[in-house]
Design brief:
heterodimer; A: mainly alpha; 2 domains; 5 helices; about 55% helix; B: alpha/beta; Rossmann fold; five-stranded parallel β-sheet; 8 strands; about 60% helix
Chain lengths: ~120, ~200
């Protein structure tokens, strides 16, 4: 049976260290742990397949929801923008608009009491 | 574990999903992060994975749904994502997280992951918080042990069911997709063994 080493730190902490390494050190790490190449290739392929399938499922749902009609990019969106204008904005700008439009401070909301038998996230 | 896994979408992940739906509806190409967020959205179902959005996201959707052309897309999004509500002790835990160096907004989302519930108030906390915010993710990972200790210390003063609150796992959407696939596979194998 394969003996497994128990790491003295979490994988997340190892990941933080790896992210701070130089490119040369990361390449050296890949040389030292060649399994990582194969795992990364398999994960990448799986993610691509999953993504393609998800997009196709969502496309079908969207088409059904809109009864086959396509949304025009000239359609008015929020903040006096058209849909096309909104989607063409840089990501940072769209994020700022969402911050403006979604102005609900969670700290101002009333705290609810959960039911006594509420399921914890274990 | 009983019941489906629960995942809270942070504001950016929810925006990516909504923008992906808008782009599909207007025949636009998606970017990689939208595909990853959409994969998470499409993973959700009643049995395995339940999605939640934060109240600010719901507030935006409520504005958008007033515009007729977008109403069917908003309805579609809402069939898969419920609104998470803060429970008792949410504010106290949010303050504790701010003490750990999180911004007010990040602390609130993370606190909703522990002291958040469904509209029916029948669950406590989330298994995952989905985020694309790399700095927040890194900060969480480096502070996680201390945060866990703080939660345990706070829980000693609480009554059930709040005493059973857990820290969520903070993950990128694509990681949650992978992890829920593995869990689902294991559960299915367990069910098959049981049936045999």
């Amino acid at each position: 049976m394969e003996a497994r080493l128990v790491l003295p730190v979490s994988v997340e902490q190892v990941a933080v260290v790896v992210r701070q390494m130089s490119r040369a050190d990361r390449e050296r790490l890949l040389d030292l742990v060649p399994d990582l190449h194969q795992i990364a290739r398999q994960a990448g392929r799986g993610r691509l397949d999953e993504g393609t399938a998800a997009v196709e499922r969502a496309r079908t749902e969207v088409t059904q929801a809109l009864a086959g009609r396509r949304l025009s990019l000239d359609e008015p969106f929020l903040g006096e923008l058209t849909l096309g204008q909104y989607l063409r904005l840089p990501d940072q700008e769209r994020g700022r608009l969402w911050d403006d439009w979604g102005q609900v401070d969670l700290e101002d909301l009333e705290e609810l009491d959960v039911r006594p038998a509420a399921l914890p996230a274990r | 574990m009983s019941g489906p896994l629960r995942c809270l979408l942070d504001k950016v992940v929810a925006r990516r999903i909504m923008e992906a739906l808008l782009k599909l509806a207007s025949a636009q190409d998606l970017i990689a992060e939208e595909v990853d967020a959409l994969s998470l959205y499409e993973r959700s179902d009643v049995r395995w994975l339940q999605l939640f959005m934060a109240p600010p996201t719901d507030h935006i959707l409520a504005r958008l749904v007033l515009s007729t052309p977008y109403a069917p897309l908003i309805a579609l999004f809402r069939t898969r994502a419920e609104v998470a509500r803060p429970t008792r002790y949410f504010k106290r835990w949010s303050r504790r997280l701010r003490d750990q160096g999180f911004t007010r907004e990040d602390a609130a989302i993370l606190a909703l992951g522990t002291f958040g519930t469904s509209p029916a108030a029948d669950v406590l906390g989330m298994h995952f918080v989905a985020t694309l915010d790399r700095p927040m993710l890194n900060h969480w990972q480096t502070r996680q042990r201390t945060i866990q200790e703080r939660l345990v210390a706070m829980q000693r003063q609480l009554d059930p069911p709040y005493r059973d609150a857990f820290l969520p796992q903070i993950r990128r959407p694509e990681n949650i997709v992978q992890e829920t696939q593995s869990s689902q596979q294991m559960l299915r194998e367990g069910e098959a063994d049981y049936e045999v």
